[in-house]
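Input sequence (296 aa), recorded before submission:
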Amino acid sequence: MNAGLAILDLVTNAGARSLFVVGIGKNVGKTVTARAVYEAAYVRGLRVGIASVGRDGEAVDVGDGVPKPRLFLHPGTTLATARDTLPRSPASELLAISTLQTAAGRLVYARSQQGAHYELVGPPSASGVREVVSELCARCEFVIVDGAIDRVAALAGTSSAIVVAAGAAAAGTIVEAVQDVAALVRRLNVPEYDPGAEQVRIEGALTPAHAAQLIAARERRQIVVRDPTQIALTGRALAHALDRLAIRCRRPLRVVAATIASIGRERSFEPREFERAVAEATGLPTFDVYAGTVAA
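Predicted structure, token format:
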């Protein structure tokens, strides 16, 4: 099967015009997932915009020197990146110069004129990511962002969809990887609050200490945070709080699928077992974009 096309259908059938790909850690297949969906959108004839919240598409990771998957863009693709990273050849059409700054300089919007490998460098703040997504959506039919958990708040309350990537590079065992991705999906999918019901509104983050106090007080009202990224709990503390408290958010997010990368630098997992375990733990369609398989 074509995993990219299947994920694209999930996103568009959910009414979303943009996709944010996040991961449980580094080297878990985020860029490969984003690239697969990009190719699917291009095949469908969509005008595609693409961006990153960090740095993607370079041949070697500037942080640890590890080879990375390159990002080939077809002609007519709109991209947001640092101006100095645009290739000298082939030339790109410069559409606009943003006031946003990236780690590699001023951010610009450009359109690829010929097929070539590109690097994407994005803004460091959630507000900057929100601006980039809005600008690309104004110019394109579908937008893909190679994202990060700490910037996903930019999408809260919008029609964007999220795909979560899990991989062997970010955990010691399959069990650990599955627990990590299940907890992340559960946190990101915290439902929207009911404005007509009683509530305790949390300004800022819901911390472990505050959650413990609310649990000890047997609080039954809605515990309302701004968005799921304001839930500052992980692991067992997160699961315990979500089981005992009616945690809700004012600006919800929407996770539609998961992907797996079963091979890491230091370990590998049996791919079908990993795929099925992630699907069962998250309740999401789970794709192996490398093998082209899915577990429902």
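Checked by second reader. Residues 174-188 form the longest helix (15 residues).
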